[in-house]
Design brief:
10 strands; alpha/beta; globular; single chain; Rossmann fold; 7 helices; 230 residues; two-stranded antiparallel sheet; eight-stranded mixed β-sheet
């Protein structure tokens, strides 16, 4: 994609689709890859490739390649497999420069403790210029109810990250797009998006959500992110 191409949602495996992109072609990556925990929600829904690590090194290798020099990648991860994620990031060239906790007002899991937060790393390629007003690394989290995806992320938590770490009009990549929350957050923040999703149902959900946005948003208008939550 160049600076004039519109946002896109691609149905396909990111390991194949990423290879089609030129080097240094995206401005920011925000993604929620499988956590490697064999997750199943209360209704039995699961996440593709959540039971293996074969995708990790090639996916982050390609993400590093297509990201512009001196830019950021923001990645959620499974804390139980933190060592594997860290190894994949370091070996492919990413440098961790921040760690985020998203605090929930409810428990998503109760066993040895109450699970009341999500975690993510801010990764750097090269030496990006820090934002003028960097966000707090502790942020609130509003439940989506996971209505559209078993691990659906809230647009309201993603939009501030995009606004901080991607220039206006820049291209935001999410190779594990799920229901398209990254794309919605990018569009309401006046950025373009390139989403990749291998599951046909989730791909259609992402397309539908973006299609339902008012035209002035998808045409790079500005609105409140809360208006885009569906």
């Amino acid at each position: 994609m160049n600076n004039t191409e519109p946002s896109r949602v691609i149905l396909g495996d990111c390991l194949q689709e990423l290879r089609k992109l030129p080097d240094a072609s995206v401005d920011f990556i925000l993604t929620d890859p499988p956590y490697l925990v064999r997750y199943r929600d209360s209704s039995g829904r699961s996440v593709a490739n959540d039971d293996n690590t074969r995708w990790m090194f090639p996916a982050f290798y390609e993400m590093f390649r297509v990201l512009k020099p001196d830019s950021y990648c923001f990645s959620f991860y499974g804390w139980l497999q933190a060592d594997r994620f860290m190894e994949a990031w370091w070996e492919n060239g990413f440098q961790p420069v921040g760690h985020f906790s998203f605090v929930k007002n409810y428990s998503s899991k109760v066993k040895h403790c109450q699970g009341r937060h999500e975690t993510a790393y801010l990764l750097a390629k090269g030496n990006p210029l820090p934002p003028i007003n960097p966000p707090s690394d502790v942020m609130p989290w509003k439940s989506t109810g996971n209505k559209l995806h078993p691990t659906q992320k809230p647009v309201l938590s993603l939009a501030p990250l995009i606004e901080a770490y991607c220039k206006p009009g820049g291209l935001v990549l999410d190779p594990f797009a799920g229901s398209g929350s990254t794309g919605i957050a990018a569009l309401v923040s006046r950025r373009r998006c390139l989403l990749m999703e291998k599951d046909a149902t989730h791909y259609q959900t992402a397309c539908t959500r973006i299609d339902q946005l008012p035209y002035h948003i998808t045409a790079a208008g500005k609105t409140n992110a809360a208006q885009a939550v569906r």
